[in-house]
Amino acid sequence: MSKRFISIEGIARRFDVGGRASTVFENLWLSIAKGEFVCIIGHSGCGKTTVLNILAGLDTPSEGVVVVDNQAIVGPSLDRAVIFQSHALLPWRTVMGNVAYAVTSRWRKWGRVEVKAQAQKFIDLVGLAGAESKRPAELSGGMKQRVGIARALSIEPKIMLMDEPFSALDALTRGTLQDEVRRICLSTGQTVFMITHDVDEAIYLADRIVLMTNGPDAKIAEIVVNPLPKDRRRDDVHKHPLFYAVRNYLIDFLVTRSRTFSDEIRGGRAYDPKKPLEVHPGTLEPTLVSSLRAAPSYEITEKRLGRVQ
Ligand SMILES: Nc1ncnc2c1ncn2[C@@H]1O[C@H](COP(=O)(O)OP(=O)(O)OP(=O)(O)O)[C@@H](O)[C@H]1O
Ligand SMILES: [Mg+2]
To answer: Is pLDDT of 233 > 60?
Structure first.
């Protein structure tokens, strides 16, 4: 599978703060394959939303370019749907009206029946059948977020960009919506770039998890390749033998390495911003395994990884 459906190529974003240029990040590179679900995690202020806004075409990089499906991004496009933390619905329109409005802006020549059928399909998909005529004020937070998801999906975008879409929801609703987004994205082969602060959410949803260091001058430190099977389920994901290896790796990054990564580079760690290292927590390279097997620390490593008792 080509990793170049979305190609972030050496982007930088600088802001003028009190007459001085402040660099949020620079020389940022990342490729995402078609149909891939990528989450990005990192501390507040490191530049996650800035990257997402550039992908959405709502912000322009100070340097570099982003290419989606072989076309450089020059502004917003209905090929790229954005789901924000806040629902951003039109308050005077019903559920059907909000989704139909998006459908109409995508297919301007469609008649009422066609528009309604397309909107209904996605309202049904997110479990809002029966609530079509309600206005946003009559909906719970979770229902509003479902409308946002239905609206984003109804325009059949090439990519979905999600900025902490579930963070304002209670745990139960968040879990249900994660399940639904996962089900829909798997069945439609949707390409997703999602920001989250929740490591469990990232492990449940993502194929790869991008680790961003603290700003200013934030970097993509590494990319964690999720070893859990595609058909994972919420209720047993934590029982997978590699779940805690991945979880601990992500938490260790957020707690310590997001701060100290630059020291790792200064200390001689190889780092190429064009090709951030892809890591597989809990699994070892076959050649490394055979050389480690000879070493006394092998058993200890295996015990630490929970693979032997
Ligand atoms: N218009 C602006 N002018 C100056 N600085 C800005 C502007 N927009 C964003 N920034 C700065 O860019 C940095 C990155 O902001 P961004 O919103 O991308 O962070 P984030 O990683 O999404 O954080 P959070 O997790 O809190 O949402 C922050 O330090 C922020 O203050
Ligand atoms: Mg943000």
So the answer is: yes
Distances (CA, A) of 120 to 108, 150, 230: 17, 9, 28
Q: Is the CB of 103 under 6 A from ligand 1?
A: no
Atom of ligand 1 nearest to the CA of 13: 12
**Ligand 1 atom index nearest CA of 212:** 21
Residue 20 Cβ contacting ligand 1 at under 6 Å:
no
SS3 40: strand
Letter for the amino acid at 1? M
For the entire predicted model, the pTM comes to: 0.88
pLDDT in tens, 138-172: 998 888 988 998 999 899 898 999 999 888 788 88
The residue whose CA is least distant from atom 1 of ligand 1 is 15
Rounded to the nearest integer, the mean pLDDT of the chain is 89
Cβ < 5 A residues, ion ligand 2: 49
Instruction: Look at strands 71-72 and 63-68 and give their pairing.
Output: antiparallel
Q: Mind giving me the DSSP string for 65-78?
A: EEEETTEE--S--T
Does residue 287 register a pLDDT over 60? no
Ligand 1, pocket-test mutation among 49, 162, 217, most atoms within 8 A of CB: 49
Name the 3-class secondary structure at 25.
Answer: strand
Tokens (6 digits) for 156 = 């059949």
49 Cβ inside 6 Å of ligand 1: yes
pLDDT at 18: 87
Cα–Cα nearest to 56, from 83, 34, 24, 29? 83
